[in-house]
Amino acid sequence: MVEYLTRADLLANIGTISEQASVVRKAEAQSPLGATFLSHSSKDIDLLPGVIRILERHGAVVYVDKKDENLPPYTSRETAIGLRDRIKKSKKFVLLTTKNSKDSRWVPWELGLADGYKTPENAAILPSLDSATDKAWTEREYLGVYNRIVYGSLQGQSGPVYMVWNQDRNEATELSAWLRQ
User: Fold this and answer.
1) CB burial class (10 A; 0-12, 13-18, 19+) of residue 2?
2) In the CATH hierarchy, which fold is given to the domain comprising 2-180?
3) pTM listed for this prediction
4) What is the rounded CA–CA span in Å between residue 99 and residue 116?
5) CA-to-CA distance for 114 and 146, rounded, in angstroms?
6) Which of 36, 104, 109, 162 could pair with 41 as two cysteines, CB 3.0-4.6 Å apart?
7) Of the candidates 74, 82, 17, 24, which has an alpha carbon nearest to the alpha carbon of residue 48?
8) Cα-flanking dihedrals φ and ψ of residue 96, to 5°?
9) Domain boundaries defined on the chain
């Protein structure tokens, strides 16, 4: 059985305020080349430290574009060109998706780029629910076609693990193995 992560799950992983800032600063300073591009809505900035920590614990080098010094300080055509290049150079693409994602102008565009540049095996969404029972929106429109990062039992593992789950085939790969592929 798989479980989606909740906001509370992600917030439980964030550590102290100085640890949170350090985790995010490191991801913002990272080169996108060969990294895991972490896309998110700016309204979900509070969840980034928890997501970054989960990905790093499983072997990811995480890139977040928020303070990339090579991108313009304001959103523009140049921002779009830069993001397109960074997504193309990244090894994996993960979209932290919440109810806020649908209101973002950039999130669907970044996911569309990843869909074109990455094989389906190299892109995944990490749904974060407000409550464990509020799953319906994760199937909405295009979100339902992507593999998901979830938590649960995986055949061959002794306990629950983070995994990348393909719901159509009901198959999963341990997150650390997926990040190495």
Assistant:
1) middle
2) Rossmann fold (3.40.50)
3) 0.91
4) 24
5) 11
6) 104
7) 24
8) -75, 115
9) 2-180
Give the whole-angstrom CA distance, residue 35 versus residue 129: 26
Cα 30 from Cα 159, distance rounded (Å): 32
Amino acid identity, residue 168?
Answer: D
Instruction: Write out pLDDT tens, residues 26-36.
Output: 888 888 899 99
Token pair 């932290």 in the structure block, residue: 96
Do strands 147-152 and 161-166 pair parallel, antiparallel, or not at all (unpaired)? antiparallel
SS3 for 83? helix
Radius of gyration of the chain (CA): 15
**What does the pLDDT look like over 126-140, one tens digit per residue?**
999 887 777 666 666
Give the DSSP H or E segment for 166. Answer: strand 161-166
C-beta atoms surrounding 105 within 10 Å? 8
